[in-house]
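Just wondering, can you check both lines?
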Amino acid sequence: MIGSIKTGAFVGQLVQGDDGSPVEEVGAWAKTKHEYLCRYVDISRGVRSKWLDHGKAGAPLIDPFCGPGRCRIRGTNEFIDGGVVAAWKKSADSRTHSLRYISEISNPGGLRLARNGYKR
C-alpha cells in the first residue's frame, strides 16, 4: 500500500498502478458501476447537447467522490479506468462530445484524463 484517500466515511487503499501512478483498490462491483455510468453518458448525450451552445451553461460531470482515475480490482491484478475517466472516454467516442471535467489540477484523476487526451 502506498497511501489512502478519504471520501466521506470510506477510505480507499492506494497501491502502485500499472501506469506508475497510484490507483485505488476497489471491489469487482466497480466494473458494473462504470458500465451503468457509461450507459448513462451515452443515453443522455442528446439531452446534454442542448446546454452546449454559446452562452449556455454547459454539461459538466461533477463527481464529488472522484478517485485517482484508475483502479485495481481487489484480490486480482486487473486494472480498470476510474469512473470519471471511463465516462469521459465514453463521451469522447461521440461527435457530440459534451462532457466537461472539473477538478483541481493536482487531482490524480484530472492528471490521468490529461494523459488520455482530455483538454480543458
About this structure: The first strand starts at residue 3 and ends at 7.
